[in-house]
Amino acid sequence: MPAVADGLAQEAQESPEPVGARIRRLREERGLSQRDLAEPGVSYAYLSRIEAGARIPSIKVLRIIARKLRVPLEYLETGNPVAGNLGRDIRLSDAELAQRLGRDNDELVRRFRELLSEAHEEADDTAALRARIGLGLALARSGECREAISHLENAIASPAVTTGARPDVFATLGRCYASNGSPGEAVRLFETCLAELAEQEHGLRVRFTSYLSCALTDQGDFDGARAVLAELAEAVEGELDTPARIHLYWSLARVASMNGDAVTAMVHMRRAVGLLESSEDTLELARAHLHCAEILSVEDQIAEAIPHIARAERLFALGADNRDLGSLRTQQSRRALEEGDVDEAIRLAREALGYLSGYVVDQGSAWHALGVAQTQAGDVDGAGDSFAKAAERLQESGEWREALAVFRAWTRMLRDAGRDQEALDVADRATAFSLQTLSRRI
Predict the structure, then answer these.
(1) pLDDT tens-place string over residues 223-248
(2) I want to staple 139 with a disulfide (CB 3.0 to 4.6 A). Which of 144, 280, 295, 306 is the partner?
(3) Cα 428 vs. chain centroid, distance in angstroms?
(4) Is the whole model's pTM more than 0.70, yes or no?
(5) Mean pLDDT over residues 403-418, rounded?
(6) By the 8 A CB rule, do 247 and 206 touch?
(7) Cβ distance 143 to 323 under 8 Å?
(8) Strand pairing partners for 307?
(9) DSSP state, residue 363
(10) 110-147 burial by CB neighbour count: b if 16+ within 10 A, else e?
(11) pLDDT digit string (tens) for 355-378?
């Protein structure tokens, strides 16, 4: 029997199915005519000659035919149904591992684009979905939120991508909505996620409730944000693991801070920091210290914020994305100004804006820091432009307290410069914004 098998294998190697015959067989199996496969660049007459063995198709032509027949290019070219898919699967796994390890994100964007294009051409839907998810996550990390939203929305349309299976995809999409100035979309997404999660999935329910509370806070719905957190805490009291408790404390801190209660916000953040100190999650610990600095900075407590900035600097040295680095540079700019180094403060604020180029809504604090530094440098026109952009971004993000601080600094700068009418105009804008914000909070 082994001799017969060896003979059949040798015969198969000596007389493999020609490419043209393989195309004809696959076409007929799918009930397609030569005209069905034809398109510009591949006429049905040319296809007929390929099938007859009178023409050898180029790779470009084979790609077109493979897409129409919905088979991998390698299979059409070699007759081997495994090699192409297996090689692509290995490359996808390598890219996904590199992504989890936080490797070169620009290179990952390139690799996932290439894999997505290849998977589309060869009608490999499973690989295309994996590549699309990887590309969406990489783009989000680079701050390319608009394109990331497109890929991630496409991905979650697949029944295979559920909240329980890929919470990172839904969490990233929601953050992209918020960064793109669409907190309402984030609210709807996270509400849908929570509706899909089973009651016993406490960890995920806490995570997505915290995401929902942040999105509601961005909309200015502080009562709604507090309500969902209170409901969650009551429902799962005593059953939360450490990561879930961290998410809960962080969310409570954000709601308190946005509602003007910095003391309560810092109490919650210190609890979160304490739990993170005992974990190995240095990135989240860095973000927690940075958030502490942001809360204190809004209160003009820069001296108290400086130790948190220093700790975030050290921890982010182990890895950070553009959003993290942009927020860090903003706080470093405020520290430099506190220390009297105006030029360094301006440089750091501009560097922050560079990192945040794809996070439009998140730019508000950076523009604010730049405006304050430019004021100190005597650049009234430059500061005015920066304050205008800061106010716009902060209003979009729901950061009403910092937006009011911008209006106050802007008005004061104009008055000091003797531009009283412009100062009155800005003060009027601030009053209108205050009334609008108050009406939403009542």
Answers:
(1) 788 788 777 766 555 566 788 788 88
(2) 144
(3) 36
(4) no
(5) 94
(6) yes
(7) yes
(8) none
(9) G
(10) ebbeebbebbebbbbeebbbbbbbbbbbbbbbbbbbeb
(11) 998 887 789 999 999 999 999 999
